[in-house]
């Protein structure tokens, strides 16, 4: 993290270590997200998505040629990411004081989506709880790629619950982790790569090779945050069951990061997720995750509550750590 030149309350009276500043920035960004949610218009990630789509259409013209497709996938990823990352680096190292601080808060706020996650999840749980299955199908189709029309009521609840747990890792905890580790460039890099993975990381003929570099990069960036998220879920729920499900079930899951997160989350909640799921190409056979009751509307709300408790735990622990560091004067700057 960059050392921060903030105005002192009185000359020489404000001494903050950079870790404490980073934790406070995360806390403020979480508060802004809770109050304002995601921007409804002109979200930077939407613009980035349009830019990435143009690159993909221009470069992904020979999807069947492995070497060419892989090479152009790497090129497209770099061309998409580097201009935005360069801007983040400039903000990190050229700005100072309160302008720097506001840019940092805005960056973390725009990278995470805690309130947006809750809005999507509650749209499904509320519809299920009131018996409006048609609306529940539509709502779940907005957050998962499954064939919503082929889902049972339990399937709808499972899909939404899995999405809450997995996106809690991707869109919340990973953003906090990368900001704390590498500042604005870190959280920007993670969010852009994660967006490209969501757009190109499919095992379809068109994206099998072209999207591989983005998908593998996302796996690397999310490896440690995913396991910290899984451990957080385990601590805040049925710990013994969550750890056992993580150990025994996660290795069989396709994704090296989603497996630990969803297995631990399902175990923490005491429900059974995973299993066969309908997609446009047919039924995908998936491993069972968790153990216990079948998922319901309540499961979705419980998954959201688990994510929210996890965020509060992270901020509390980080704040205590930062205050200890501050008390000992490690890394302090005036």
Automatic annotation (TrEMBL):
Q: Which GO terms describe its cellular component?
A: plasma membrane
According to its UniProt record, where is this protein located? Cell membrane
According to its UniProt entry, the function of this protein is described as: Converts cobyric acid to cobinamide by the addition of aminopropanol on the F carboxylic group.
- Per the record, the gene is cobD
Return the protein name: Cobalamin biosynthesis protein CobD
Q: Which GO terms describe its biological process?
A: cobalamin biosynthetic process
Q: Does the keyword Transmembrane apply?
A: yes
Q: Which family does it belong to?
A: Belongs to the CobD/CbiB family.
Q: Which UniProt keywords apply?
A: Cell membrane, Cobalamin biosynthesis, Membrane, Transmembrane, Transmembrane helix
An example of a GO molecular function for this protein is: ABC-type vitamin B12 transporter activity
- The domain of life is Bacteria
Task: Respond yes or no to whether keyword Cell membrane is given for this record.
Answer: yes
User: Per the UniProt record, which residue ranges are transmembrane?
Assistant: 12-32, 70-91, 313-331
Record membrane topology: Multi-pass membrane protein
Pathway the protein contributes to: Cofactor biosynthesis; adenosylcobalamin biosynthesis
